[in-house]
Design brief:
The structure holds two protein chains of two kinds. Chain A has helices at about 15-25, 45-55, 65-80, 95-110, 125-130, 150-155, 175-180, 200-215, 260, 275-285, 295-305, 310-335, 375-385, 400, 415-425, and strands spanning about 30, 90-95, 115-120, 135-145, 155, 160, 170, 185-190, 220-225, 250-255, 270-275, 340, 350-355, 365, 370, 385-390, 390, 405-410. By secondary structure, chain A is an alpha/beta fold. Chain A has an eight-stranded mixed beta sheet, with helices on both faces. A four-stranded antiparallel beta sheet of chain A has the order 12-13-18-17. In chain A, helix 3 (about 65-80) runs parallel beside helix 11 (about 295-305). In chain B, the strands form three sheets. In chain B, strands 2-9-8-7-6-3-4-5 form an eight-stranded mixed beta sheet, with helices on both faces. Classes of the chains: A alpha/beta, B alpha/beta.
Chain lengths: ~425, ~425
């Protein structure tokens, strides 16, 4: 007689990122899998934590967040995002963007509600939707074309790949209109998008707004965890957003991550900003989960936001990430692997197509279970090349669609990326 | 935007939560706050020092969902030494963001919709929403005081400024009622010992009896909430009192929840643990994966340092002695107050409960000042206290399935400085 609740039964295995990180460690691979930076977090964050630890309260604080943090975050968002936030009603802090998302789902979804995701969608969304008894529907975003090595290298100039229409991944708006219906409660989009690095355009949001006008019950959850990392023509924080779009902002909750902003994924501070009703529901969800966050971490984060409100820090971080993205992409293009490529517009990752790779048959078999190509490729990389990447089929409703994509993280030191590139030559 | 954005499950829970509300009121009216259960004396310097040091050196990237290895090791060693529980670090322990988060993960991991969970009322009022959110049903089995104690009878029992728990302070479980309520839908029973709010510590005999009953219902899991396991009075030593997680017939079906934040008088720390059989911990880890994902590593290694530094237990003996003094001071003050309260000596925890049946409360406090709806006596009393006496306490009807049963009781926190308690006692004279 097994005691575990039905909802958890599909999720008892070690989670994918943790599993691949363990493998990376075990086999001495270069880990381009899990999305954490392996360069140091900024000293200002450490100093802030250390100082606040000596003086800030260590007792319960407000569920919605420490007042200092709510104030600092609101000011920061107003300055950098152009979004005015009522500190009492339109913002909440939680334990990382992930906990925020979990509270959004609990706060907003009834059993039987439907949630639209744009695939490839971060694979932690689906379980959180299911846990609330809701149903997730994947609307695929599809690359306009495959770019082989010869095609993409043409756009490489002065150490940078120039983004072009050939790198676009497109949303099928007709399909979206087909699947959206009265039961649709939430539309979850991620921009810059993990894993493909897509930044949605204003035109796309205009079209989305048109469609949502016909379905006024739909709430938009905008996952902006990578909002500080946008390349090319976009500046940090400054790119088309739902939370500032005239026809979407009133129905949007925007999720951000201080941990990602400060290259400290273990920080566990994230924000929800948006519609007062949604925030009310999220606060209630948080009350009955973590109740409140640690005050020291919150005031330390507030200090960092105050110190970086002029945005200069984020300019240099963005430039760093853009260099790393280009270094990795060039290395993947120069590698002996015959893949197809796209230039990312932001985020931490590059996705490649592996449909033309010859993968030894043995990697398709895991203890008698037949693996999809992307998993087989990932194990092939680990065992014969010593580089970890992440298979993308878990990001899709339709796994077959995702089986030719893998994700590589460039939030790594030059040394690490170079090491990976050498192993792939 | 239209009306029903918020999910139905949250609808009863959108108001400001009770403890926060009374704390706000305390601040607004400059009351002495004996309501929310947080210490108002400083947390130990070694905790601050540990966080400050770890902040400079520990990783700031994702760590293992189940908990930082150093913390799991330190906690396991601590529990082995003080609770007599051997824990397999890889399988039988998980750290989460406070005992509350642990409980949320436990319910998500183990409760299917329509499962039933038995709570012993008065039960911490957060259990019920957490149970409901998983689609399960909570069933309250009340504990009842064996008698009402007059002020004189309690005063008589003081010796050299101290008072010992006795039979007259016992709250009893109705086992027949419990057996009636248990059925094949029952999936879990929550045992909170020391119990918030009454300070009850379940005895070996009571756990024996519970074990017998549960043998007839082998699917039932025991969720032991031991958040106050370091604060036990009288003949009990910190951590050393009858527990389900060490009871021969209950341990294999128990998940035990503890709170580092409470242990180190730092309720904002947000580090708690679940220990128990792998088959439960496995599910709890998965629930956590898809909520917090992992905890902040610095808080974890700092907590580990504190557990390592206090493993000889001396720190906890001192803390316990402090809390016991504070509980006695408060009890004496309530007895000597002008209010006609009935009291019981607590066996542990942060709180004591008084019966207010014989207190005269002005009629106006029975109406909610926001929307005029009728309030139960305990709430009326709490507002009377906050507005006219200047002391905040917590009404106990939210701790009961049957609100009427609970409307006789209010809870007072003694996890406060001597100055604070003295101030409260003066205002109550």
């Amino acid at each position: 007689m097994q005691p575990i609740a039905n909802r958890m039964l599909n999720y008892l295995q070690p989670q994918m990122y943790a599993k691949f990180t363990m493998l990376a460690n075990q086999k001495g691979c270069v880990n381009l899998g899990q999305g954490f930076p392996n360069f140091p977090s900024p000293q200002m964050l450490r100093d802030a934590l250390s100082e606040e630890a000596q003086t800030e309260s260590l007792q319960y604080t407000m569920t919605s967040g420490h007042p200092k943090l709510l104030n600092s975050a609101s000011k920061f968002f107003e300055q950098q995002i152009g979004c005015k936030v009522n500190v009492d009603k339109e913002i909440m802090v939680s334990s990382g963007a992930q906990a925020v998302l979990s509270c959004v789902m609990q706060g907003v979804l009834n059993p039987g509600d439907e949630v639209i995701l744009f695939d490839p969608a971060f694979d932690l969304y689906r379980p959180m939707i299911e846990f609330q008894g809701a149903k997730h529907i994947g609307v695929p975003i599809i690359p306009k074309k495959l770019n082989n090595k010869q095609e993409i290298i043409k756009r490489y100039r002065n150490g940078k790949f120039q983004y072009s229409q050939d790198d676009d991944w497109e949303l099928d708006f007709n399909y979206l209109e087909k699947v959206i219906n009265k039961k649709t409660k939430l539309l979850l989009l991620n921009s810059p998008m993990n894993p493909i690095g897509k930044v949605f355009s204003t035109e796309e949001y205009n079209q989305l707004a048109d469609i949502l006008d016909k379905h006024p019950q739909v709430v938009v959850c905008e996952d902006a965890a990578y909002h500080h990392i946008t390349f090319g023509k976009y500046q940090p924080f400054n790119y088309p957003r739902c939370i500032t779009h005239p026809r979407l902002k009133d129905k949007t909750v925007c999720v951000t991550s201080a941990g990602k902003m400060y290259s400290a994924t273990g920080l566990r501070i994230g924000f929800a900003v948006g519609n007062e009703e949604i925030i009310k529901g999220i606060k209630a969800a948080q009350t009955y989960h973590i109740f409140c966050l640690n005050p020291v971490i919150q005031t330390a984060t507030a200090r960092c936001l105050d110190q970086t409100i002029d945005g200069k820090y984020f300019q240099s971080v963005k430039n760093l990430y853009e260099e790393q993205a280009n270094m990795l992409l060039k290395g993947l293009v120069d590698s002996r692997l015959n893949m197809n490529y796209w230039v990312p517009q932001g985020g931490y990752f590059v996705v490649t197509d592996i449909s033309e790779i010859q993968i030894p048959e043995k990697y398709f078999n895991d203890n008698g279970v037949r693996l999809t190509r992307d998993f087989a490729f990932a194990y092939y990389m680990i065992n014969e090349f010593g580089v970890v990447c992440i298979p993308c089929s878990p990001y899709y409703e339709n796994k077959a669609l995702g089986q030719n994509y893998v994700r590589w993280a460039f939030c790594k030191t030059s040394e690490t990326i170079q090491d990976a590139i050498n192993r792939l030559k | 935007m239209q009306d029903n954005i918020i999910a139905d499950r949250m609808a009863p829970y959108l108001q400001l939560q009770m403890y926060a509300k009374f704390t706000q009121l305390a601040v607004k009216n400059s009351c002495v706050n004996m309501g929310q259960g947080f210490p108002n004396f400083p947390p130990p310097q070694f905790l601050r020092q540990a966080i400050a040091e770890e902040a400079l050196t520990e990783t700031l990237q994702y760590t293992i969902t189940a908990g930082h290895p150093r913390l799991l090791k330190a906690a396991s060693e601590f529990f082995d030494k003080h609770m007599g529980v051997k824990v397999d670090i890889a399988k039988e322990i998980v750290a989460s963001s406070g005992a509350q988060s642990v409980l949320a993960c436990i319910f998500q991991a183990l409760l299917n919709p329509n499962d039933e969970v038995i709570c012993f009322d008065p039960a911490f009022d957060f259990y019920r929403p957490l149970i409901e959110f998983q689609g399960a049903k909570h069933v309250g089995v009340p504990l009842r005081p064996s008698q009402l104690n007059s002020k004189a009878s309690i005063l008589n029992r003081f010796e050299n400024g101290k008072i010992k728990f006795s039979k007259e302070d016992e709250w009893h479980l109705d086992y027949d009622y419990l057996e009636q309520k248990l059925n094949d839908k029952t999936k879990m029973i929550i045992v909170n010992s020391p119990q918030n709010p009454i300070g009850k510590v379940f005895s070996v005999e009571e756990l024996d009896r519970l074990a017998e009953i549960l043998e007839k219902h082998p699917q039932v899991i025991v969720c032991e909430d031991a958040a106050y396991h370091h604060v036990v009075f009288g003949d009990y030593q910190p951590f050393s009192y009858p527990r389900c997680i060490t009871h021969p017939k209950l341990k294999s079906k128990t998940v035990c929840v503890t709170s580092a934040g409470k242990m180190f008088s730092a309720t904002g720390l947000r580090v708690g643990f679940a220990i128990g059989d792998e088959k439960y911990i496995k599910g709890i880890k998965s629930a956590q994966t898809y909520h917090n994902f992992c905890l902040n590593p610095i808080l974890q290694t700092a907590t580990a340092k504190c557990l390592e530094q206090t493993i000889d237990g001396k720190y906890f003996t001192e803390i316990r002695d402090l809390y016991e003094e504070q509980s006695t001071m408060l009890l004496k003050g309530l007895i000597e107050s002008r209010l006609n309260l009935h009291c019981w000596v607590p066996q542990g925890g942060y709180f004591l409960v008084t019966d207010i049946t014989d207190v005269e409360i002005p009629e106006k406090y029975f109406k909610d000042d926001q929307d005029g709806h009728q309030l139960t006596k305990d709430f009326a009393f709490a507002y009377y206290m906050a507005n006219e006496i200047g002391v905040v306490c917590i009404p106990c009807s939210p701790y009961f399935e049957n609100k009427e049963l609970g409307s006789r009781f209010v809870r007072w926190a003694f996890c406060k400085t001597t100055e604070t308690i003295q101030d409260a006692c003066n205002r109550l004279k």
